[in-house]
Predict the structure.
Amino acid sequence: KVLSLSRAFLKYDICPIHPEENQRSIGIFAVNQEGWTISNFAIMRLGGSIVTLYATLGDDALVYCINQTEI
């Protein structure tokens, strides 16, 4: 599952390399579950990082996180 998802991220350019940071990052807005963990490992396999976003953060915090990480 992890290998297939990491390949899909590359194929569909879902997690591109940030031009200034030279690193991949992606935001995940989800409750903790198996799919979240698989996504985390798939991104790590590509040398990237995950920005975790939760509904409990509130709108202002979500906007701040998205802007700060440029996802």
